[in-house]
Prior knowledge:
Elements: H1 13-20, E1 29-33, H2 42-46, E2 50-55, H3 58-68, E3 75-77, E4 90-96, H4 105-117, E5 119-130, E6 140-143, E7 146-149, E8 153-156, H5 160-170, E9 172-174, E10 179-183, E11 187-196
Amino acid sequence: MSTDLTPFEGLDVYLFDQLVKGRIHPGMRVLDAGCGGGRNARWLVEQGAEVHGVDRNPEALERAAEHLGLGPERLQVADLEALPFEAAAFDAVLCCAVLHFAADHGAFERMLDELVRVLRPGGVLFARLATRTGIEELVRDLGRGRYALPEDREWYLVSEDELLRHGERHGLELLEPVKATRVQGLRAMGTWVVRKRLS
């Protein structure tokens, strides 16, 4: 058995878990929403998946193009609040460490609306985002959903209950329980894996 882990270098470990479970696989048409330099798409691209990526940062997309060997037809400058794709265009949508940059409740909801809009019924949404679950005593409410964190950051933070409500509103069903990982008293990162209902 090969022990070469190079194709998974930089991959979000919680996304790796979903690959191992077969929920996200090379046979899918995948959107990496907020793809950055492409670290989470490399394995899927190498396995022949049709991966598309969007990011607000043109320089990040240049790195992704070099890293993944994809052209401008697959990598586009775009904001998550207005994705340049038709409805139900993707079998899976990945959104890693992006949603907590929302400016307020409205921006978060618009981003989530778009992620769900471009996901086909039965498709999988995998999101990693900052949460206040488990660190409530460490954050300060700034209003509009934004919080001050101990490490001099200001992020939009959701709770587990809020994610469940968002899921219900969008017709999303949990594929596994919402997880929150506390990072040494500095922040907490949530993992939200859901399927868009067929009807």
